Amino acid sequence: MLRKLILGGFCFLIGAGLAFFGMQFFLKTGFFKVPGKLIIEGEVSNVEQYTKTLAEIELDKDMTISEYLSDKNITHKAVPTQDLVESVEEVEQAQDVDDAKYYLTDILVPVADFYEPKESITGAEFEERLASGEGVTSVLDLAETQKLLAVDGNYWLDDFTDGAKYKILKVEAETVGDMANVTELLTPLMKEFPSSETVLSFTQTGVTALGRNMYTKMAQVGVGAYFSANIAEYLRKFDLTHTSNESSFSYYASVNNICSDWRFLDTLIDIGLDIVELTGNHNIDCGAGDAISTFEKYQELGIKTVGGGRTAEEAEIPLVISQKGTNITMLAYNQSTGGATLGATPGANQYYAENAMARIAEAKERGDFVIVDVQYNECNFYDDVNENTYCDRADSAPGDQVGLFRSLIDMGANIVVGTSAHQTQTYEQYNGGEIYYGLGNIFFDQVWWPGTTRSLGLTHYFWNGRLLQTRRFGTVYDTSYQTRVMNTEEIEWLINRLNQAR
What we know:
By secondary structure, the chain is α/β, with parallel strands linked by helices. It starts with a helix and ends with a helix. It has helices at 2-27, 47-54, 88-93, 123-132, 156-159, 176-186, 213-221, 225-228, 232-236, 265-270, 288-301, 312-315, 353-366, 401-411, 488-501; strands at residues 38-40, 63-70, 100-113, 120-121, 136-138, 146-148, 150-151, 165-173, 199-208, 240-245, 275-277, 304-306, 308-309, 319-323, 326-334, 347-348, 369-375, 415-418, 427-430, 433-436, 441-443, 454-463, 466-476, 484-485. 29% of the residues lie in helices and 26% in strands.
């Protein structure tokens, strides 16, 4: 009896063992487990790095890696399928999906030469560029000699959504454990890309002088926001918005002077003005008292000032900006146009080469990006009501404007901007920097000559302390004195005209 029990138990153990190992054999688990394989589908950038990294995992099941271009920005989030990803919110709601993860590996944008008049291409043209590999670059490789183009009017640096293609790495795995290991290993390999949280947008606009005939218009409309109604939304979207205001606010404003009725203050508030340049030659037209009260009103409103003040000492203080990981020093000078402060009196910051050289050197020692604005001599060669291109030239004003502006780049400035020209002037790259010789009028009453109704605006985009791009946009007004942003056709025409002047 005992022998039968022992024999029966022995047979049971053998049977159980055979069943156990048989099941492992058929299911390929345990002793007979076959590790999963890493499968690469199609072309995958940095595939060697990913393969080497994922080799550290002993996969339970096969894992597939592929890469594709998407219109959507999927940043290190798991999503159900590409087609279902309609917004960042949906991506975030899909965190419980374990069989696939998507990683942003690159952002591709269309580019042209720095001087190219073209501002925007169609989506179809973008697809052709992607197919040929020409005229396209990673946003991480944007060069100073390149110009970022919009796609169907969408400029990527403005909303970080449209105007680019997103290269997405798709990783598919069958087990939660494999996917967890993938997340741990691949996430640190992903690059950082510019975003709305990390890119500083700084817009510079041209000459503002809210007076004379605009005073008559103000008497009709009664509110300052009338003049900015068609451009306020555009300018408010940037982190920093600048203008060079040549006129102080005064109760003595009239149609006969370049002083501003106090109601015009709402024009500046409406555009979200952050920085006002005071290098203009008309800020003391209505007396020192009005210049001082205007300066103090800016301080009260939290609007930063540069290039002018209540005294010469105050006027020459640089504007230092530290925001979103970028440090900028802005200097602004008045050169030969009048209105400069005389020691203890209010006015503009007079240009002295020694001062500029010292201030630029201090800023560069701190590692700051340096922007220098100059109120230079004005070109006044407006002989009729037709288009006249003489003042488009950089050397159209009395004196050596080209020599002065280039010398500031040689001193170490990164960007030099002329803020006195009432007609838009040409621009250039020089010795590693950018020069814009004259921006023209953004808010003024000069409607007699077509050239003085236009201006060139500049939006500088900074990321991690470096300049990604300077986008050139145009503005125009008419006898309504309501300034608006130029459309694509208009700005391309203006850029082409300025290129011819150069």
